[in-house]
Design brief:
The chain has about 220 residues and is mostly helical. Helices cover about 50% and strands about 5% of the residues. The longest helix is centred in the C-terminal third of the chain and has 24 residues.
């Protein structure tokens, strides 16, 4: 007898995202092997201490890495891809019922950091992927099975992948709906230069007594 599978979405589900992703999934290994905590430290100077929280810099780098490994050069398609895959949600740290960052956040974060900083950090992450045996060539991810190391080959692959990563960054900007205009890029570069110049504490006159006290601008607190 021919089957007929009815389906009516439930109002509530009792599921665990971790249980839905196989233990040998590639992105599980990627998450375990990559240590990205320094990304927050190295980009902290570009953020203020007040206002709405930004996308986590580590999540941002992970999103770009996903885009690179899947050859997605559009912010919108990249975020749709991440939203629709359970293993990527687990990799990024977003549960089933959580909304991922808006696609425009990706290009705006690139603008905030500036092209030089973004490319440098992304190249480092790709280098780590090669060293851990997670990437074997241009936009080619390994499966979860460990590979035997070959130092000379890895060195060539690492350079190839890092150079390709820089090319991908350019493609991502071209495919973005929020492109960095020449004027905008100049403004961002000037802002970064200003923050670099004013990293030292400044003195301000205390209220009413003429005392000197040390203060720091919010955006410059590391």
């Amino acid at each position: 007898m021919q089957g007929d599978k009815p389906f009516a979405p439930k109002a509530f589900y009792q599921v665990n995202l971790d249980d839905l992703v196989p233990q040998d999934n590639f992105y599980r290994r990627l998450n375990q092997d990559l240590d990205l905590h320094r990304v927050r430290k190295e980009t902290k100077k570009y953020y203020g201490r007040e206002g709405q929280k930004s996308i986590d810099p580590v999540v941002f780098i992970k999103v770009v890495l996903v885009g690179y490994l899947n050859n997605l050069d559009s912010d919108r398609r990249l975020m749709e891809h991440c939203s629709n895959r359970l293993d990527l949600r687990l990799f990024l740290g977003y549960d089933i019922d959580e909304q991922l960052p808006w696609h425009s956040t990706i290009s705006r974060t690139r603008q905030l950091w500036g092209e030089e900083v973004f490319i440098e950090l992304f190249r480092r992450v790709l280098g780590m992927c090669v060293q851990k045996g997670l990437v074997r060539g241009k936009r080619q991810a390994m499966d979860a099975a460990p590979m035997k190391a070959n130092a000379s080959m890895d060195s060539l692959v690492e350079k190839e992948v890092m150079d390709d990563g820089e090319q991908y960054a350019g493609e991502l900007d071209v495919g973005s709906e929020h492109k960095v205009s020449r004027k905008r890029k100049t403004t961002v570069d000037q802002h970064h230069a200003w923050k670099k110049k004013h990293t030292r504490a400044v003195r301000a006159v205390g209220s009413g007594r003429g005392d000197l006290m040390t203060t720091r601008r919010n955006v410059l607190v590391f």
